[in-house]
Amino acid sequence: MTKNQIIYIQGEELTYDQFSAVVYDKAPIQLTQTAIEKIHSSRQFVKQLIDEEKTVYGVTTGFGKFSDVVIPPEQAYELQLNLIKSHACGVGEPLTEPVVRGMMLLRINALAKGYSGIRLSTLQTMIEMLNQEIHPIIPSQGSLGASGDLAPLSHMCLPLLGIGDVIHRGNRKPAQQALREIGAEPVRLEAKEGLALINGTQMMCSLSALSAIAAQNLLLAADIISAMTVEALEGITHAYHPILHQVRGQRGQMITAGNMLSLLEGSGYVTRPGEKRVQDPYSLRCIPQVHGASKDAFTYVAEVVEKEMNAATDNPLIFTEMSEVISGGNFHGQPLALACDFLTIAMSEIANISERRTERLVNPQLSGLPAFLTRHGGLHSGYMILQYVAASLVSENKTLSHPASVDSIPSSANQEDHVSMGSISAKKCWNILENVSKVLAIEYLCAAQALEFGRKTFGNGTKVAYDLLRQYLPPLDRDREGHQDIDIASKLIQNGALVSVVREKVDLMI
Length: 510
Known about the structure:
By secondary structure, this protein is mainly α. It is built from 20 helices and 9 strands. It has helices at residues 16-23, 33-51, 76-87, 97-111, 120-131, 150-157, 175-181, 193-198, 202-232, 242-246, 251-264, 282-285, 287-309, 334-362, 364-367, 384-400, 422-450, 460-472, 482-494, 497-503, and strands at 7-9, 29-31, 91-94, 134-136, 139-141, 165-168, 171-174, 317-319, 324-326. The strands form 4 sheets. The protein has a 3-stranded antiparallel beta sheet. The chain has a two-stranded parallel ribbon with strand order 1-2. The longest helix has 31 residues, at 202-232. It catalyses: L-histidine = trans-urocanate + NH4(+).
């Protein structure tokens, strides 16, 4: 998928690849004709409801606890404008550009389904903002995850109305100026539009989608790096025999065992039972069981998130084919909250077992290698303190792994008496993935350094991984600033370079 390839949006089939192309590569988006027709039809029905003076939540009434307050049609603009302004009360550091772009894309995709009653012109202005890289400044805190991400989405919508500042192609400027520069006018909201824009799960869903993309990359990187460690410690590959894993039948476990055998094929380092030892420790022997369980969790989470990426999550929803407006709770973030908590725990385990392998690499009593992987122990400390850093990060992850989805605080005068805390789950998940990448980077460094003490043939996949690191970082001969090594290794993991080069040689599965 090329950078300038148009992504067509119709609310039903947005994929992770398309999401990534828009969020990271700035691919432009455009509504399909089918979406346009559905949007027009939905808007016409809203006009009909107003003409017939029907009482409809959020169209002719107030919001939340004020749902029983009827608002006359002549105050529709003021009602919707006040909604956006009053709900734009988030706090904390601004969300990153990828999260903001993801929020905008996902809200556009949800509105394109034609169940929200928004005007086409309003949606087209948001599309133009996204395509022209006008990014709202959105505080990261303040969402309960039901009724959706109200505060963050309100901040997302302020610039659409010409209010506040934006980041436009890297420069901060007033929203009105940015709109003027792209030839757009601020939107004047009509009935239902404000609610349609902010009542949804798009902040937590954007973070969840970004996390799913990152997690897939880290799960494959973990297999590659652990295979290097198996080589460095002369591990026993018999533990990855396919029949062993088939009799258990867990999909992720079988896939991981296959990955390990593919990566280590041709290696002169690996051993057979009894050659060096009868069995390896769990952190080597149980790689398929541990990595595999996390892969299975990832598969579940990725499916939940992809459904939410294509979901209608505002309230009420308009079903024109039935001439029906249904008020419900699709904005409730519980599916994402549980999924993100699950992924958080699953990915924390990837870091936990990685740190244990790092300890085996640097500890001479466990590895048979020079202490802390330096030839000059005493005068030089080698990679001693890198294991400390890994231990610190996995400990932090254990705290972050406490599920947010089990918490709830009533809001809106107890009208909204159970909330998901999905935004907190999603943010924690993203933070943990950053830590996991650093822990894996430390194992990557230590495994490569440990292999400097051998003179044997690498496996098909491990050689590529070793060579990639050595393109950017020489072996550790004398002590140097460890944070620089970690930064180089983590970038090769996070940007997908490690997985990409290895996949050119080895068919890795997820």
